[in-house]
Amino acid sequence: MKTLALTLLGLITLCIPACFSVEYNWYNTNIGGGGFVTNLIYNPAEEGLLYLRTDMGGSYRYDQANKSWIPIQDVFSGSEWWLFGCESIGIDTKEPNRVYIAAGTYMSYGENGAIISSDDYGKTWKHRWDAPFHFGANDDGRGRGERLAVNPVDNNIIYFGTRKSGLYKSSNYGESFEQVKGFPTNHDIPFILFVPGSKGKTIIVATDDTKAPLYISNDGGSSFKQISGQPNIGYYPQHGAFSADGKYLYVTYANSIGPNGATQGDVYRISLPDYKFKEVTPVHGSYETQQFGYTGVQTSGTNPGVVIVSTLNLWWPSDELYMSSDYGETWSEGVASHAELDISEYPWLDFGKADNLKFGWWIAALAMDPFNDNNVSYGTGATVYTTTDFTNAKKNAVTHWAPNVRGFEETAINDIEAPPAGPGIPQLLTALGDLGGFTQDDIHETVEMWVNPTYTTGNSVEYAVSNPKIVVSCGTDNAAYSTDGGHSWTPMKSLPYEKATGGHITISGDGKVVTWIPNQSQKPYYTTNYGASWTAVNSCNNCIQIRPDGKNPTLMYGYDHQDLYISEDGGKTYKKQASNMSSGQLMSPYEVEGHLWLACTYWGGVQISTDKGKTFKEVDPKFKTADSVGFGKAAPGSSAPYTVYVVGKYDGYYGVYRSTDLGSTWELLNDDSHQWGVYNSKVIGDPNIFGRVYVATNGRGVIVGDDTSVTGNGGSKTKTSSKTTTTKRPSSTSISNGNENCFSEKIEPYYPCCKTTTEIVSTDNSGDWGIENDEWCGIGNGNSNGNGNEPENESCYGYPCCSNCELTYQDETGKWGVEGEEWCGLRDICDSSPGDTRCPGEGTEYKCCSSCLDVYEEDENGPWAIEDEQWCSLPYYCQN
């Protein structure tokens, strides 16, 4: 019998709990918008400077060069989740680099709001003032604004209109605020405006006093009074905008603060400086047609007579925009009635029905480029549309719109799954609020949402570990199954009981037993016939989580936040396995039997079981609490069968952590600039790409992290490499400066030839690759001309042959691997060996090595290596 001695290795490894940081590249999966855009704000002092705010998903600045949005509020973490909603954005027209955010999501829960200040366009935040009251970015009235206003002359002075605490003022660029004495505190203040040409002395403040809501100060804010002569219409002011020549102020009104409940409204034009009110409403609703109010208003920065407004709660056929070129005296026909929407880049915007595409709803956000009247954008409850031919509306001609949401992600994610790769298997499955769910073969490409059924909210999704093409999901009022990887769905044939909805759903590893725990249910229900009949699981009463084993197809685990149960028949019956457990999230890693992890919400930190849940142990005492735990591909050379990812608080810092050694050591992946608000619902790794992690957020979509030492320019759609070491090309091979005829210019997708470097960063079936200017480039003639490791034109099942025997997927055609993010076929040699075994030592008490490892000893049974601190026999394919 062989014995393993540390002296054989020539070293002693001492594992000490510790945390190190690693460089990660963070980006989003591409869903595109997906939430309520509460306002779009141009800064007229700098061309192209545009901000976007949301009710619960932070705020953004538009990158004109790349036509994409940059998140600027990701500094708030789950420990301050209530600060991720944006109540207001304040722009500075004297120093456009300055910007302010009023952060705070709810008036009724969470904690008090805060105002943060930046002098570099929101790239970093210099000051923070913690208010003694709550903000309401996701409460009613969130589409009005702006509540923050910066004095255009003395820009150290900033005003903030609160919901219940009156008017506040800062005199030191937002470092601190004080209440303005004498201003009423019994009314909400939706917006504040400095009158043009008044040198910052004349200020208009809107309130919710429906009899006379507008106040004015003519002495720089020392005193305020209600403007006389206001129409006693009993409506709430929504937005205000000045004409380009400063002659008029336009104010929109509705009989609700919005975004719902408006059935009446008006638009008023106020002449300056005598403040005479004139109603200029484009059209009124009626009981016979449609009832609605008005909300958005914008004016041209170059053509004084141009003003546009949007309706509020005009539900059929959709909300409208109206344009006037003569100060509101006359108006165009509805812009929506002549609009063409191109949603080809974001096809889900028809919500699964070709005839269901709407121009928009909740159009509180309305923005006209102050330098170009043709560039107009508006926000809806789900996206931002932009046109570059808006002036066509003057002639009641067609305007052309498309979603403008690249980089902007505002979805609330309830569940995510990344199946192991295989033909027909998607890269990511996502269940989310308001939009149901998505199945993405490529996380960079948007797709149609799930249909049949179309959930209002998708709650849970799971695949069968032995056959990932079988997927189940549940959501609003229904559950469904798929046999093609989630690309098409069939509703369950019945519900476990009347009005069963939402909750948690899972499936046994062999795909034969589906278990559903609907919301408010006291027990799970299982079906073996996709819902034709359901049976209550009485042996796992009060279980709220059911997890399949990562490898054993009939082994399931139930958890009720106190006790653990085990099932050996796919989830039909359970027996108690462990008691007195901490409350938290239970997860099982893919392709390993008997391993369970528990992320403990209140006490117990992060725990592991390797004996099917009989016992658990804490992996690191520095983890006091954790919200979620997930798993991904093992690190190259690691003896651990998978990588562990945790969202939790380690040594006092809340973040995303990973361990490549089953919890002995931990690495922090994110930093203070990458916090994304609430991201505690789920974290998973990618089973196919080491280092890739997916984080489910509540308002910032699915965040993806790539280890930059592994993927290089991870996140881009260009070629990525899993190698972490570089090698020098042999000096006997000469490459001319320019490398004009290299292989990479002759393949699809096209990559340039390396012009200066000869350093090989990666090698795949195509050839050798280097990196120049942060982009991949080809080196040499490629493998087809004998420059690589592959014989010319060698094919396995019609695909390139793999350079190793690492099995990723198996079907009726054969065995498959993945190299360079492309499918490859395993050679016959991967299966060939004497006696149909994979390694010469397989008939002994030792296993075959899982990959080609360094040889430490040879005997009559062939070469031996060490894996998981045990001897293993080297496979035959490693010896050829």
UniProtKB/TrEMBL annotation:
CDD domains: Sialidase_non-viral (cd15482)
Composition skew (Low complexity), residue ranges: 708-736
GO function term, MF aspect, one: hydrolase activity, acting on glycosyl bonds
Keywords for the protein's UniProt record, in alphabetical order: Carbohydrate metabolism, Glycosidase, Hydrolase, Polysaccharide degradation, Repeat, Signal
Region of interest: Disordered: 706-737
Domain of life of the organism encoding this protein: Eukaryota
GO biological processes: polysaccharide catabolic process; xyloglucan metabolic process
Residues covered by the CBM10 domain: 741-780, 791-827, 838-875
Pfam hit, one: CBM_10
Signal peptide: 1-21
Family listed: Belongs to the glycosyl hydrolase 74 family.
Name this protein carries in UniProt: Oligoxyloglucan reducing end-specific cellobiohydrolase
Organism: Neocallimastix californiae
Upper classification of the organism: Eukaryota, Fungi, Fungi incertae sedis, Chytridiomycota, Chytridiomycota incertae sedis
